[in-house]
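Priority: medium. Attachment 1 of 2:
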């Protein structure tokens, strides 16, 4: 019993450690900027200012564990904002504007240096089935939330899922173009295109 108690205490300490938290935050930033293959564990330590030799103690699952937690951290704010948008939007155009605004803010705030953490991860995750499955689940969850926007404004559930897929595909493409051009124009066009195509309630 004592051993189990000590193990639990160690795990709790890992989760609450400020140094550990900074490493996860640094990994999230670096992944959005460079993708998984462009981020080494030593770079994460250097970027976070963490103590050398701490990765093995904080992340016994290695790079996969660190990347997984970093993705979860990066995407959490997007889910929160999407849920807020869905609950507060009074019109379909407002809802679409809120979805796009979240991504617009992220690219502008970081001077067009960072993109979608999910896209940055899935491109490099072919050789890591655990990460690929995790990202796929997050994308499915995000798509379902976007589909909820369509359902709220009268789209049948089956069609809503299709519309959400198209919107997410357009957003990911617009993010790439926005970063390349250093201009939010592509995101603005996606917003106008989808906001003007509100569902027609039966």
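Attachment 2 of 2:
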């Amino acid at each position: 019993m004592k051993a189990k108690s000590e193990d639990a205490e160690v795990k709790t300490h890992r989760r609450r450690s400020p140094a550990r938290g900074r490493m996860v935050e640094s990994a999230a930033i670096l992944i959005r900027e460079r993708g998984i293959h462009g981020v080494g564990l030593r770079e994460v330590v250097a970027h976070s200012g963490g103590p050398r030799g701490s990765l093995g103690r904080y992340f016994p699952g290695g790079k996969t564990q660190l990347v997984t937690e970093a993705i979860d951290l990066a995407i959490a704010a997007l889910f929160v904002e999407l849920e807020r948008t869905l609950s507060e939007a009074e019109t379909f155009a407002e809802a679409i504007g809120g979805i796009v605004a979240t991504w617009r803010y992220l690219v502008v705030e970081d001077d067009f240096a960072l993109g979608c953490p999910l896209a940055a991860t899935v491109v490099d995750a072919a050789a890591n089935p655990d990460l690929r499955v995790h990202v796929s689940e997050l994308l499915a969850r995000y798509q379902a939330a976007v589909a909820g926007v369509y359902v709220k404004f009268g789209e049948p559930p089956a069609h809503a899922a299709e519309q959400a897929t198209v919107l997410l595909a357009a957003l990911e493409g617009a993010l790439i173009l926005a970063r390349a051009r250093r201009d939010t124009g592509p995101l603005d066009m996606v917003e106008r295109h989808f906001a003007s195509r509100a569902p027609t309630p039966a």
